[in-house]
Amino acid sequence: MLDRKAESPRDIAAAQPHRRGLGDKAVSQLAESVLGRMFLREHIGKDQLLAGQEYARRWSTYQAVIDGPRGLLRREGAGVRCHYGYCDGQRCWCERVKAKWEEARNMLREQGYAVYCAVGHVAIFDVELDSDRVPLLIGLNTLARHFGLTKLRKRGYRNASSRNNAFVGTR
User: Fold this and answer.
1) Number of Cβ atoms within 10 Å of the Cβ of 80
2) Rounded-to-integer distance, Cα 52 and Cα 61, Å
3) Is residue 61 within 8 Å of residue 67, measured between CB atoms?
4) Which of the listed ranges 26-30, 61-65, 69-73, 82-86 does the model predict with the highest average pLDDT?
5) What secondary structure does DSSP assign to 9-68, as a single string?
6) Residue 18 and residue 15: Cα distance in Å, rounded?
7) From CA 64, how far away is CA 80, in angstroms rounded?
8) What is the C-alpha to C-alpha distance for residues 32 and 130, in angstroms, rounded to an integer?
């Protein structure tokens, strides 16, 4: 019989390569994703974390609606099919999901290709960035404002200087 010392969940989590350097925060569920680890290390704020999570949620819902990637392989995913039973003519749930995803994606594209790619890599594909985090921060701030997660809402800027300053900082 082997006599093994029982390891605590904290010790097990702290030993995992992607959780190293998080200290006591290594046991947090947020440590499972790149976005969550950035939040735990205080590289991004709560609004930015929520914006990235919402962007990823909209992407996965959009993928489900177009039945991708399986539908794309069967050449059926090119258009939205209403096979969930929630659609009723003008109030098509599938079309609303598609529009919400495209609206968020276009917000990022307006900020530039680097911003669009940085947010996609981190929020959707859970890939660490090799270099500059500035495009990611710009993208997350854009999404946070677009989703209404910040004190600066989508509309109603008082002046142009406050609009330009919405992208500065991490919180």
Assistant:
1) 19
2) 14
3) no
4) 61-65
5) HHHHHHHSGGGTT-GGGGGSGGGGSHHHHHHHTTSS-HHHHHHHHHHHHHHHHHHHHTTT
6) 9
7) 10
8) 18
Assess whether pLDDT exceeds 90 at residue 113: yes
Please tell me whether the peptide bond between 135 and the residue prior to it is cis, using omega within 30 degrees of 0: no
**Rounded to a whole number, what is the distance in angstroms from the first to the last CA of the chain?**
53
- From residue 164, how far is each of 24, 106, 151 by CA, in Å? 37, 18, 14
Q: What is the pLDDT of residue 60?
A: 92
Q: What's the pTM?
A: 0.71
pLDDT value of residue 57: 96
Q: In this predicted structure, what is the pLDDT of residue 140?
A: 97
pLDDT of residue 159: 41
Place 149 in a pLDDT band, splitting at 50, 70 and 90: very high
Residues 20 and 37: their CA atoms lie apart, in Å, by 10
Q: At CB < 8 A and 24+ separation, what contacts does 55-63 make?
A: 55/104, 55/119, 55/123, 55/124, 55/143, 56/123, 56/124, 58/97, 58/100, 58/101, 58/104, 59/101, 59/123, 59/124, 61/97, 61/101, 62/97, 62/98, 62/100, 62/101
